[in-house]
Amino acid sequence: MAETPLAARPPYSEPRQQHDAAMMGMYLFLGSEIMLFGGIFAVAAVIRILHPADIVESSRALHYLIGALNTGVLLTSSFFVASAVEATKGGRRRAGATWLAAAAVAGLVFLVVKGYEYGAEYREGLLPLPGADTQFRTAPQHLFMNLYVLATGLHAIHLLIGIVLLSVLAPCLAFGKVRLPDRGILIIAAALYWHLVDVIWVFIYPVFYLAR
Amino acid sequence: MKLSHPLLLVWVALMLLLVSTVVASQNLTGPFSLAVNLTIAFAKAALIYWFYMHLRQESGLARLAALAAGGWLAILFLFLSLDYVTR
């Protein structure tokens, strides 16, 4: 159900061109995020090549089942967000907003579980935070855990931004502040960001938790 | 909230891949384990990009923009490995 006819804004000559430009801009921005995390994965690759036994031992100490649970939560949240976009494209505001809210809640569940996991690792002396009492057998294991905190922490910050984004957009969508269909691109772009944060975790999980 | 079946099917596939990566990591070791788990991660990422991130519906130019960073990273990893593996 289209509420207003789809019209292009200047400088675009037609709606499809405007859509393509928005999608390309978002994909390129996400590309810069991929490069940011790519640097972390590059370091992970190098320390794995140089110290395979140490890295496997460190990885075994992590709670891989909690990580699996969180991966499942994020993948499910991505399904919610994809459903929100589907509903938005169909002009179903309430359904779209509900799916967005569900995804934001799933994101919060992820952060709570991650917080619990950090707590457990802190007590086990695995978390290299300032003032923490850590016991690492070797320097590469200390490096691996530094990288783990950096990767998962940076990911958590990205997820938090996504949660804020969805929490703002859900009521805007529900109460008609997002004009459909032409401003539906807002929801699509936010969804793309959410999916990328999910994709990054999809790589963090095997690289850090499942090194064997 | 109407369920959209293709999206749901993708979610089921993603969950199966998650289970398989956990099972694989508990049964395999060394570079082979890493290769299997990374392949599964790429399969998950491909499903998300293709179906959830709309690459299926977008033009070739948009697909190129979306995947370019992956290409640059591949170059980074290629030369990084050439350096460290051959030392």
Automatic annotation (TrEMBL), chain A:
Intracellular or extracellular location(s): Cell membrane; Membrane
Main location: membrane
Keywords associated with the record: Membrane, Transmembrane, Transmembrane helix
One Gene Ontology cellular component: plasma membrane
UniProt entry tagged with the keyword Metal-binding: no
Pfam families, per database record: COX3
All copies of domain Heme-copper oxidase subunit III family profile, residue ranges: 1-212
Membrane topology value: Multi-pass membrane protein
TM region positions: 26-50, 62-85, 97-116, 147-173, 185-208
GO biological process: aerobic electron transport chain
InterPro entries, per the entry: Cyt_c/ubiquinol_Oxase_su3, Cyt_c_oxidase-like_su3, Cyt_c_oxidase_su3-like_sf, Cyt_c_oxidase_su3_a-hlx
Chain coiled-coil ranges: none
MF-aspect GO terms: cytochrome-c oxidase activity
Keyword Transmembrane helix carried by entry: yes
Family affiliation: Belongs to the cytochrome c oxidase subunit 3 family.
Name of the featured protein: Cytochrome c oxidase subunit 3
UniProtKB/TrEMBL annotation, chain B:
InterPro entries for this protein: Caa3_sub_IV, Cyt_c_oxidase_su4_prok
Annotated compartments: Cell membrane
Primary localization: membrane
Membrane topology label: Multi-pass membrane protein
GO-annotated cellular components: plasma membrane
Superkingdom of source: Bacteria
Pfam name, any one: COX4_pro
Protein name: Cytochrome c oxidase subunit 4
